[in-house]
């Protein structure tokens, strides 16, 4: 399977995963592979049972099929995030369902894997997602400040001009990378390598997608801080 170092929470307790799919063969296989990693796994076959399970186990990450018997994965994510707004979600989509993938990311999903998938790829994606969500790291009391934008690396709270801003795990990690490098132009390749931690199949447009999400939340009705340097990348800087 994998010989990578076992990931745990900062207190040493195991990672909790919720795997949601109406095909028992898939959830059984995921549970087997992820328990091999030392993680705890809860499973659900419907949207309703997924929402209930998330409430009970408070997962660190969710694997979520887009197509479920009662309602779709987007609705499941919406209901779970109403109570656990920062929980990372990785969608399972059909290989040819491009619209599902785009819709999932647009709705706030953090990643997607297409069926059929390899267990090695799934574990790698989950490890990357857990690291950028901060679930596996002991956090410091560091606060990043650029202009009137503040990011607390300990509490994962973000605000601009005193107004709180809600970000997904991936949006948070992207903003943190930008704020750690103020006034420095970062290429799409650099951002992919730092934020996604694996080869995203050359799909640099995912960077454009998440930059657009951040702009809507950080720069909405304000002096813009995130700038595109055509042909070079992106830069974050305080308004003059």
Structural class designation: alpha/beta
Tally of DSSP helical segments: 8
Report the end-to-end length measured between terminal Cα atoms: 52 Å
Tell me the major beta sheet: 5 strands, parallel
Q: What share of the residues does DSSP label as strand, in percent?
A: 15-25%
Strand order, main sheet: write it out: 2-1-3-4-5
Number of strands: 11
Could you state the order of secondary-structure elements as H and E? EHEHEHEHEHEEEEHHHEE
Question: Which structural traits does this protein have?
Answer:
single chain, 240 residues, alpha/beta, four-stranded antiparallel beta sheet, 11 strands, 39% helix, globular
Protein architecture, described:
The chain has 240 residues and is of the alpha/beta class. The protein has eight helices and eleven strands. The strands form three sheets. A five-stranded parallel beta sheet has the order 2-1-3-4-5, sandwiched between helices. β4, α4 and β5 form a beta-alpha-beta unit. α2 runs parallel beside α3 and α6 packs across α8. The radius of gyration is 18 Å and the shape is globular. The protein starts with 15 loop residues before the first strand and ends with a strand.
């Amino acid at each position: 399977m994998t010989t990578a170092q076992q990931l745990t929470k900062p207190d040493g307790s195991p990672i909790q995963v919720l795997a949601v799919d109406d095909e028992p063969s898939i959830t059984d296989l995921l549970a087997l592979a992820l328990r091999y990693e030392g993680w705890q796994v809860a499973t659900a076959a419907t949207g309703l049972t997924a929402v209930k399970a998330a409430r009970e186990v408070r997962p660190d990450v969710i694997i979520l099929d887009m197509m479920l018997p009662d309602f779709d994965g987007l609705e499941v994510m919406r209901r779970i995030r109403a109570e656990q707004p920062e929980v990372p979600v990785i969608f399972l989509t059909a290989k040819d369902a491009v619209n599902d993938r785009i819709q999932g990311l647009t709705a706030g999903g953090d990643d997607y894997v297409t069926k059929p998938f390899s267990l090695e790829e799934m574990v790698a994606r989950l490890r990357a997602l857990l690291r950028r969500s901060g679930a596996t790291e002991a956090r410091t009391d560091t606060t990043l400040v650029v202009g009137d934008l503040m990011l607390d690396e300990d509490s994962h709270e973000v605000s601009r001009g005193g107004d709180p801003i809600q970000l997904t795990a991936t949006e948070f990690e992207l903003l943190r990378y930008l704020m750690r490098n103020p006034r420095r132009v970062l290429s799409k390749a650099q951002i992919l390598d730092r934020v996604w931690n694996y080869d995203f199949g050359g799909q640099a447009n995912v960077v454009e997608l998440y930059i657009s999400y951040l702009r809507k939340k950080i720069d909405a009705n304000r002096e813009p801080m995130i700038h595109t340097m055509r042909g070079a990348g992106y830069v974050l800087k305080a308004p003059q």
